Amino acid sequence: MRRFMLAALLMTAAPVQAKEAPDTRGLYLQLIHQARGDGRPRAALAYLDDFERRYPGDAEARLLRVNSLIDLGQIDAAEAVPLPVETADGGVSAVRGHLLAARGRWAEAAAFYEQAGRASPADPLLRNALGYALLRAGQAGAAIEALRGASDLAPQMAVIRNNLLLALIVGGRDAEAEAGLRRIRDGGLRRKLAAEAVRIGKGG
Questions:
Q1: 138: Cβ–Cβ under 8 A, 6 or more apart, which residues?
Q2: Strand, coil or helix: what is 28?
Q3: pLDDT tens digits, residue range 53-76?
Q4: DSSP 8-state secondary structure symbol assigned to residue 53
Q5: Residue 18 clears pLDDT 50, i.e. is over it
Q6: What is the mean pLDDT of the chain?
Q7: Other CB atoms within 10 A of residue 58 CB
């Protein structure tokens, strides 16, 4: 309920004035990130439309718009968004990687993820993205190493754990993959990973 009250307050607030509270921009961005995190990219785009009227040309907002459009599968529209110059955290390189991954250009995507990772070496999701891109590019060994690094940073994150298991299967590390699967004891996940490994092996 508090989130929706915040949304209402932000959407109906007056245009930005010099005396506006300095954290208003941060509240907007938090709301947009939350909408994406909740799987509501259309809401994120609606909030972005309002945000960008207040803060035109904001670099973070542009990156969020690209990611929200990718969430919706609107890749042409995402590619049409002009990207800012590189940010200190490598965010622009990460978004370029996402766009290339959405087109299935995995090796190129991996290069951008690696560049972004150098700017944010402790970001587990960037390492995860790098590992998956390397896996899809046919570099299972490098993918395993990248995903192990991501897992060390975020051992409880299921998407990283699953991608590491997938890379182990594709890379022929059957004993290690089996050990990990036994700890999970999820037959549905086992079947899903096996099917995905076959698909990747066929170049799908």
A1: none
A2: helix
A3: 999 999 999 999 999 999 999 999
A4: H
A5: no
A6: 88
A7: 18
Using CB atoms within 10 Å of the CB of residue 108, give its burial: 0 to 12 exposed, 13 to 18 middle, 19+ buried.
middle
- Find how far residue 161's CA is from the centre of its chain: 15
The CA distance from 80 to 99, in Å, is 11
Angstrom distance (rounded) from CA 28 to CA 10: 7
pLDDT at 175 over 80: yes
* pTM summary value: 0.84
Reading the block at residue 96, the tokens are 């370029």
Q: Which DSSP category does 185 fall into? A: -
Query: Is the CB of residue 60 less than 8 Å from the CB of residue 29?
Result: yes
CB 197 within 8 A of CB 170: yes
Q: Which two three-digit tokens encode residue 53? A: 């009227």
What's the Cα-to-Cα distance from 195 to each of 28, 47, 84, 106, rounded to whole Å? 40, 38, 39, 20
Other C-beta atoms lying within 10 Å of the C-beta of residue 103? 11
pLDDT at 132: 98
* pLDDT tens-digit readout, 184-203: 877 788 899 999 999 998 77
**Tokens coding 60:** 């973070």
